[in-house]
């Protein structure tokens, strides 16, 4: 058995953290060393996540100081931050300062929004607060694993869940210059995308058997999508995005439409998508429209599309907690430790969720 790699999860009680813990429990190389929680240090993991009780029967949440101690004593460690934006950067900065003093080399994937922008000004423009660790921004790249083959930095800021689905559908079209760079996007997300803290948008009697939009044409992920698309293919695109809340817990479905820049039919579109993602093990391009039930609970993304009357539509379905967050983060961390990208992530969707 190869040496196990200690894994640390920051911000350990939310839905994304729970998904990270589930994936780490089944990973052949990562081993949970600490799940940090400011709100529940010393409490059993199983109290927050009863479904993980068999995987972590005795594990308890740690404090920030305990997590820093682990990172300072392990030569290399895999650190996943599922802390909220605004809090994650400060936690990561403190951890990296501890590691630098100890001479250790943790690798970090931040799943919050704190390291998705290249400058503190760009971050502050979206989140209306100063960045907590602006000097660290240059140490992070923000991209999907499918769109950045060589990682130029030590750490990664993972794109958001909506951003993941939109970028998977859009970047192949932009990279091949198949479309005009104005894209119209409609997306539907499950209630887990709003986090664990109950709010009106996730309250079951309001969300059940309903569908409604929010933040039309002003969603805060749009600048992130624009920046990631520019970095992935060098195109300055405009995304007109209308998000919706769906009456289900897990999953995202997006539809991206644009005007064609050159002649193309539906078969040619599918061929172009398959060629672009030929080396992407978690992206499947099918002739039939994607369904959330076919990807929920997995790290797979399903794409399809159609062309008619000079307009192209690309459809994408992912799991917001897995491919859009925790699974994508593990996928990045596998690459950062020179493991096969698919390690611990190939379980199929359960279906009928």
Domain count: the total is: 2
CATH-scheme architecture of the largest domain = 2-Layer Sandwich
Strand content: 15-25%
* Number of helical regions: 10
Distance between the termini: 34 Å
Helix-and-strand structural type = alpha/beta
Gross morphology: globular
Helix content: 25-40%
What would CATH call the class of the largest domain? Alpha Beta
Mean pLDDT equals 96
> What is the CATH superfamily classification of the largest domain?
Dihydrodipicolinate Reductase, domain 2
Q: Which residues form runs of ≥5 with pLDDT under 50?
A: none
What is the CATH T-level topology of the largest domain? Dihydrodipicolinate Reductase, domain 2
Order of helices and strands: EHEHHEHEHEEHEHEHEEHEEEH
Structure, explained:
The protein is of the alpha/beta class. It has two domains: 5-142, Rossmann fold (3-Layer(aba) Sandwich), CATH 3.40.50; 161-320, 2-Layer Sandwich (Dihydrodipicolinate Reductase, domain 2). Helices cover 30% and strands 21% of the residues. It contains ten helices and 13 strands. The chain has helices at residues 15-26, 45-48, 64-73, 88-102, 120-127, 161-175, 204-207, 222-233, 266-276, 322-336, and strands spanning 5-10, 30-35, 76-81, 105-110, 140-142, 155-157, 182-189, 212-213, 238-245, 252-259, 283-285, 301-308, 311-318. Helix 1 links the parallel strand 1 and strand 2. The radius of gyration is 20 Å and the shape is globular. The relative contact order is 0.14.
């Amino acid at each position: 058995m190869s040496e196990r790699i200690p894994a640390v999860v920051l911000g350990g009680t939310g839905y994304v953290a729970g998904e990270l813990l589930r994936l780490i429990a089944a990973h052949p190389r990562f081993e949970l060393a600490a799940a940090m929680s400011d709100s529940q240090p010393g409490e059993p993991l199983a109290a927050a996540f009863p479904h993980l009780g068999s995987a972590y029967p005795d594990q308890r949440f740690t404090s920030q100081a305990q997590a820093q101690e682990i990172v300072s004593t392990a030569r290399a460690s895999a650190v996943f931050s599922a802390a909220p934006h605004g809090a994650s950067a400060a936690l990561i900065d403190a951890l990296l300062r501890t590691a630098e003093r100890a001479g250790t080399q943790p690798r970090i994937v931040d799943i919050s929004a704190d390291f998705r922008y290249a400058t503190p000004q760009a971050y502050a423009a979206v989140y209306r607060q100063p960045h907590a660790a602006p000097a660290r921004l240059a140490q992070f790249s923000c991209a999907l694993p499918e769109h950045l083959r060589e990682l130029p930095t030590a750490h990664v800021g993972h794109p958001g869940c909506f951003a993941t689905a939109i970028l998977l559908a859009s970047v192949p079209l932009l990279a091949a210059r198949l479309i005009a760079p104005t894209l119209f996007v409609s997306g539907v997300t499950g209630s887990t995308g709003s986090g664990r803290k109950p709010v009106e948008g996730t309250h079951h009697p309001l969300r059940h058997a309903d569908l409604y939009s929010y933040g039309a044409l002003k969603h805060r992920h749009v600048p992130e999508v624009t920046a990631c698309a520019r970095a992935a293919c060098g195109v300055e695109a405009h995304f007109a995005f209308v998000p919706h809340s769906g009456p289900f817990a897990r999953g995202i479905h997006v539809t991206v439409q644009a005007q064609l820049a050159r002649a193309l039919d539906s078969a040619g579109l599918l061929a172009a998508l398959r060629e672009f993602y030929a080396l992407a093990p978690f992206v499947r391009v099918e002739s039939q429209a994607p369904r959330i039930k076919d990807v929920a609970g997995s790290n797979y993304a399903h794409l399809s599309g159609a062309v008619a009357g000079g307009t192209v539509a690309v459809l994408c379905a992912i799991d917001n907690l897995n491919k859009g967050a925790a699974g994508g983060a593990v996928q990045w961390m596998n690459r950062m430790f020179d493991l096969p990208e698919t390690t611990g992530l190939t379980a199929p969707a359960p279906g009928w969720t």
